[in-house]
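Narrative of accomplishments. A recurring question from our advisory board has been how the design workflow behaves on a single, concrete structure rather than in aggregate. To address it, we present the structure tokens for one chain from the evaluation set, followed by the sequence designed for it. No filtering or post-editing was applied between the two.
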């Protein structure tokens, strides 16, 4: 199982970007999916999480600006980021708890995608 993240890049203050994260492999089901971010010299923080049923939650600093969504048929999660601020600059990581099928049966593991740089200029 792999998580492949895409999107990100450079945006101006007040601009928008969209991140995507697609899971692939021997997937039985995907439980919670989430976006984390890590700014320079700061700890990684949870930005948003979405349940398998589509219920979202957000850290206070992005509420009203970011929207998390998922397409279960495509095993893909999105993060639409609007009204971006310089303090949103960070490396963003997707994360998912995935039930997978392996030689010993079905197991559950937590997976991380590769980091994506998001830079917001002031």
């Amino acid at each position: 199982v792999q998580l492949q993240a895409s999107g990100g890049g450079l945006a101006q203050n007040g601009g928008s970007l969209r991140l995507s994260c697609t899971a692939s492999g021997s997937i039985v089901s995907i439980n919670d999916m989430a976006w984390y971010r890590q700014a320079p010299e700061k700890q990684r923080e949870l930005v948003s999480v979405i349940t398998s049923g589509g219920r979202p939650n957000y850290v206070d600093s992005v509420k009203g600006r970011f929207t998390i969504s998922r397409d279960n048929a495509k095993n893909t999660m999105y993060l639409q980021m609007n009204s971006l601020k310089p303090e949103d600059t960070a490396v963003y990581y997707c994360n998912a708890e995935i039930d997978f099928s392996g030689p010993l049966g079905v197991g559950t593991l937590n997976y991380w995608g590769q980091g994506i740089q998001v830079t917001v200029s002031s």
